[in-house]
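Sample pair:
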Amino acid sequence: MDLRNFTFMFYGFSVAWTILAIYAVSLMQRQSKINKQVESLKKMVEGKLQ
């Protein structure tokens, strides 16, 4: 195989892993935001029940 093929393959995998990492970080941030909203709603419901 030509060395250029390995170079393109390396860049392709690098881009793919970078996109996956960004997506994973995005999901973690969304989950954190949702958890905060759920805690806020729990406090609101507890306040109304008392």
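The two ends are 73 Å apart (CA to CA).
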